[in-house]
Amino acid sequence: MTIKLRVPKMKCEGCEQLIKDALLSLNGVDQVYVNLEEKRVEVTPSSVDVEKIRKVLLETGYPAELA
Fold this sequence. Notes:
By secondary structure, the chain is α+β, with helices and mostly antiparallel strands. Strands 2-3-1-4 form a four-stranded antiparallel sheet, with helices on one face. Helix 1 packs across helix 2. It has a single domain (3-66), classed as Alpha-Beta Plaits (2-Layer Sandwich). The chain is built from two helices and four strands. The mean pLDDT is 96. The longest helix has 12 residues, at 13-24.
């Protein structure tokens, strides 16, 4: 299962890397794909839910909504 999120505040490659690093640091996240042009993030979790992922993004400064 892949969780797809839209991250409207993502503006640059630095944002992209910050988001990727924050999500990969979560226990239970297997893969993260970030598309800067589409402002989209795809997360493949093994044992973490979407609300935890959204919380980490919000704490990083990037509120996300389900895509």
